[in-house]
Amino acid sequence: MTGTTTTIRLRLLALAALLLVAVLAAVLVDLPSAAQLRSRMDRVGWPGAVGFVAVYAAATLLPVPKNVFSIAAGAAFGLVTAVGLVLAGACLGAGVAFWIGRLLGRDGVVQLTGRRFARVDAVLVRQGFLAVLGLRLVPLVPFTALNYAAGLSAVRWSHYLTATALGIVPGTVALVALGAYGSTPASVPFVAAAVGLLALSALGVRAVRRHDRTSSVDQEG
């Protein structure tokens, strides 16, 4: 088992644990309902939405879990609004990180992302736009590492941002739906979101295994 596959499996387990915690919290803990949270955010108005986008964009610059922010947005803003805010924050942060990566150079990016950079960089060199799109579709691929690595690749900024915006939609919708319908874990939207995330994660595991096998064959050849 490669280190990459082990990491992916650990993240898959973490995702399953997150879903379990969300269900248990909804059933056992007396949390404010989604309607109450949205009512509070309505009173805050547009500054709350702008503030969330700014915080999310800043979070994309650091190797911290972003899924929690997406789930929280679903609970606080509702499905449709939250999806728009998360996409805006993610794309803003990704666009900024792209140029930071170019300014820092390879050594600086390696210090920020560690061994993940080499793996992501190898894929970007070969496939460019399609690589960014594919890696964004798989939510287990480190978002921050790809942001900085893309800045050092030959991928155009406009192509990179377009691929990012398109690729993160499925995972974003699923995560936001978990928050939006978290108070009713037996509902169809919540179950569909959970199944969708697990399916995307399973595809990620399969893609990594296939990549590892291809790399092994290339090295042997």
TrEMBL record:
What membrane topology does this protein have?
A: Multi-pass membrane protein
Cellular location of this protein?
Cell membrane
Spell out where the chain crosses the membrane: 44-64, 76-100, 129-148, 160-181, 187-205
Q: Which residues form the VTT domain?
A: 64-180
Tell me the InterPro entries matching this sequence. TMEM64 (IPR015414), VTT_dom (IPR032816)
Tell me yes or no: is 4Fe-4S among this UniProt entry's keywords.
Answer: no
Q: Can you list the GO cellular component terms from the UniProt entry? A: plasma membrane
User: Which keywords appear in this protein's UniProt record, sorted alphabetically?
Assistant: Cell membrane, Membrane, Transmembrane, Transmembrane helix
Q: Assign the protein's first listed, main location to one coarse class.
A: membrane
User: Which protein family is it in?
Assistant: Belongs to the TVP38/TMEM64 family.
Question: In its UniProt entry, what is this protein called?
Answer: TVP38/TMEM64 family membrane protein
Lineage here is: Bacteria, Bacillati, Actinomycetota, Actinomycetes, Propionibacteriales
